[in-house]
Amino acid sequence: MKIVVYGKDNCPYCVAAKEWLNARCLAFNYVDVLKDLNPGELASLKTQYKMNTVPIVVINDELIGGYSNLQRLEL
Question: pTM of the predicted model, to two decimals?
């Protein structure tokens, strides 16, 4: 399973998403949208997933949504 969390360090929901995944011993890649992406890449990410907020959680290249959507999963 490939999990990617796009977020920002100062975002409480991003922190919560990472903690949720860690508590379940699920490996994931974290991409800080302010540090790891340039403005064009960030704009493309928002367009691709039709989301303007973080976290953006993607599992196996499929958009899950934000933290509340992640919590509803049975992983």
Answer: 0.94
